[in-house]
Write a structure and sequence with these properties.
Elements: H1 8-20, H2 23-30, H3 34-48, E1 53-56, E2 59-62, H4 64-91, E3 97-102, H5 104-109, H6 111-121, E4 126-131, H7 134-142, E5 148-152, E6 161-168, E7 170-173, H8 187-192, E8 195-198, H9 203-214, E9 223-225, H10 228-236, E10 241-244, H11 250-254, E11 259-261, E12 269-275, H12 284-303
Parallel strand pairs: 3-4, 3-5, 8-9, 8-10
Antiparallel strand pairs: 1-2, 5-12, 6-12, 7-10, 7-11
């Protein structure tokens, strides 16, 4: 076993049969004969000294040993595919694919500007953007479904996180709200106020809850929304006090539809980072994308700082 090194064709055949549940369909997928697939699998099982596949009715499924082995096979094949894309990008400069995961707020307010700048550098590159909560996106990254994730730095313990920019949350209120005219924010007024906050189970929500705890105030039954546009609109019509990053509401703050009210001397600070799988170096395309994200993010945070 110590000298075992499977043939790549055997690995591809094994994964194809496991995915398709059929030797016939796997053969069609790989453009091989069913006999060739069978011989590859038989040789692989002999080398490993165990059965990898079993029949359950009309379907072929991995055995317990096969389930263990296929996880490693998928990772190996994903890395080989990634290497192939990188080499192809070197042959044809600027032609590559980059798969990016980011929270919805970044996809809506940050990434459009980033992508515009990025296309100037790599006009033939194909960015694929996937939106979601950072913890879910990190799972997608581990599964090799994404190349990089832009998310909150304190949401994960992965080693390969690179700081991008920081921001600080703020209260937003309608112009008619007492706080908009300099009304004093006290623990009592905080306790009495209705707040509109971002989705539970996110790092942003947890940071906001921790801030209220530090003020000695319990966040009373807030209105919880999963869309920043909805938070801003509910705030604008006076249904409560929103809690957002200023760059999310920069247009509304600039034209007076909303007013920003600092959360105090110590507010809710968030640190944004970019993550890759552990010990993987970024390609030129990815390095450029990350650099633009950091530049645009810092600029947004600086423009909307109070």
């Amino acid at each position: 076993m110590s000298e075992f090194l499977p043939d790549l064709r055997q690995v591809r055949a094994f994964v194809a049969v496991a995915d398709e549940g059929s030797f016939t369909l796997a053969a069609k997928r790989l453009c091989l004969t069913q006999s060739a697939i069978s011989h590859s699998l038989r040789a692989l099982e002999e080398q490993l000294g165990c059965r990898l596949l079993d029949r359950q009715g009309k379907k072929t499924v991995p055995t317990q040993e096969g389930e263990v082995f296929i996880r490693r096979c998928r990772r190996a094949l994903a890395e080989l595919e990634h290497a192939e894309r990188e080499l192809d990008g070197l042959k044809r400069w600027g032609q590559a694919r980059i798969r990016v995961g980011a929270p919805h707020s970044l996809c809506h307010f940050l990434l459009p500007t980033v992508l515009r700048e990025f296309r100037d550098c790599f006009p033939r590159c194909e960015p694929v953007i996937e939106a979601g909560d950072t913890s879910w996106l990190m799972t997608r990254l581990e599964e090799h479904a994404l190349d990089i994730v832009v998310g909150l730095g304190n949401e994960t313990q992965l080693e390969d996180g690179r700081p991008l920019f920081s921001d600080e949350m703020t209260f937003i209120v309608s112009p008619a709200h007492p706080w908009a005219n300099g009304g004093k924010i006290t623990p009592d007024s905080l306790a009495a106020m209705h707040f509109i906050v971002y989705t539970r189970s996110t790092q942003t929500h947890r940071l906001v809850e921790n801030w209220f705890e530090q003020q000695g105030v319990r966040l009373r039954a807030p209105l919880v929304l999963g869309d920043m546009e909805a938070i801003k609109e509910m705030t604008r019509i006076g249904l409560g006090v929103g809690i957002v990053a200023p760059w999310v509401a920069r247009k509304e703050l600039a034209d007076g539809r909303l007013v920003s009210v600092p959360m105090g001397e110590v507010g809710v600070r968030r640190d944004w980072s970019v993550f890759t799988r552990v010990k993987r170096n970024l390609t030129l395309v990815e390095e450029t994308f990350v650099g633009i994200c950091g530049m645009i993010g810092k600029d947004l945070a600086r423009q909307t700082a109070f």
